[in-house]
Write a structure and sequence with these properties.
It is a single chain. The protein is mainly alpha-helical and about 130 residues long. It has one domain: Cytochrome c-like domain (Cytochrome Bc1 Complex, Chain D, domain 2, Orthogonal Bundle), CATH 1.10.760.10.
């Protein structure tokens, strides 16, 4: 029995390491907090959205496609009827241009790599480019 207690106490003291040099992991962790604060209400915890109101973020061309278009949606909002997977969504999304470029990059990286999505990181430079006036 003392061996079991020793093993458990050694395991409990083992530090958890996070790779600080992996920007994707950092972006996803930071992005999850931003998603929870600003996006979860409409797009739900599972990214499934609300039928006929708020579109899903799961395996859609909006999420997995053009990062510039996606960043512009977050920056400028979205107020168009859109059809995704046979369902029509009409609820307007407000602009979140008050968020920093890093916050937007982080939340988009989180969304593009959650809910069964697997896509590249969104960088701060890409968001800056999307935010810049034409």
């Amino acid at each position: 029995m003392s061996l079991l207690i020793f093993s458990v106490s050694v395991m409990a003291q083992k530090p958890v390491t996070v790779k600080k040099n992996n920007p994707k992991l950092t972006n996803i962790a930071d992005g999850k907090g931003i998603y929870t604060k600003y996006c979860l209400t409409c797009h739900q915890a599972d990214g499934g959205g609300v039928q006929n109101m708020n579109p899903p973020l799961i395996q859609t061309s909006y999420v997995l496609g053009d990062k510039n278009r996606l960043a512009k949606i977050v920056l400028n909002g979205f107020n168009e009827e859109v059809e995704i997977n046979g369902d029509v969504y009409t609820n307007a999304m407000p602009a979140f241009n008050h968020l920093t470029d890093k916050q937007i990059a982080d939340v988009l990286t989180y969304v593009r790599n959650s809910f069964t999505n697997k896509a590249s990181v969104v960088t701060v430079a890409e968001v800056k480019k999307a935010r810049a006036p034409k």
